[in-house]
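Workshop exercise sheet. Pairs work together: one partner reads the sequence aloud, the other fills in the structure field after running the prediction. Swap roles for the next sheet.
Pair: D.N. / O.F.
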Amino acid sequence: MFDVFSRVITTVAVLTVFSIGLSAQTPTPTVLPTPVATSTPLPSPTPAPITAEMVASGNLTVQQIAELSIATYGFPSGRATLNQIRKTAVERGKLIITTPDGRQDSATYQRWFLRPETGPEKTRLDQQFPNAKYSLIYDGTEIFGVFNDSSFVPREDAATVFQNQLVHSIDAFHRYQENGSQFTSGGREKILGVDHHILDMTDKEGQKTRYFLSVKSFRVMMLEYESGGVNYRRKFYDNRFAQGTLVPHRSVLMSGDKVLEEVLVGTITYGQKVDDGLFVKP
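Structure field:
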């Protein structure tokens, strides 16, 4: 365990060291009595590498904590590994939803992601309940539903739940730079005997998510957000590797002490061809 963790630290330390470009200078002709003065830009300061001592003492910046976490999920190259492998994703699994009256509904689901090099991310979620099957789609500009090959406008609460799954997620954490999100520190907190780094993320639309990262493993253990005046918490369990990247295979969404949703990932495949037509309104 220590060996793997040391490799993560070493890798991220390398990634955090940015190369400094040096301006080329034209040699001065020997026939000139005095070389012609040229201005050379001053090099940018090089960020300090992350050391084992810094990690042990907790003396890390918010960005260093975020990058260490990303390296944990996409070992060995962090963001580069995730961006290369996770351009597309096909996920299948099971949903267990608790209704307001306490009844539990189960459904199977299939989810597609498409992350183009330019332009917004696209997502489609197909849900199969015992008596109904429908899809919710974000095509990069709007959310709409599909039922029996016809589009419809989802109820506001259903659209909000779908949007929250995208905005308040581990994937949104991993893509904070691409999405233009910013982190601030929420300090450290011990919960049930486990020390956590707390990172508060705000995206370009001003939507906020609080992430709790294990001080030991830098994995996201849970996240919190507010929507419609209600506070939510999603916890993550059963981390396993899928094509070399770390994926939690179980998550539980709660409001207060009440469980609202449980997601059980069956399979997830990255890099598979995903047809752009899946995200087109019929």
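Discussion prompt: Confidence is low (pLDDT under 50) at residues 1-47. What would you look at next?
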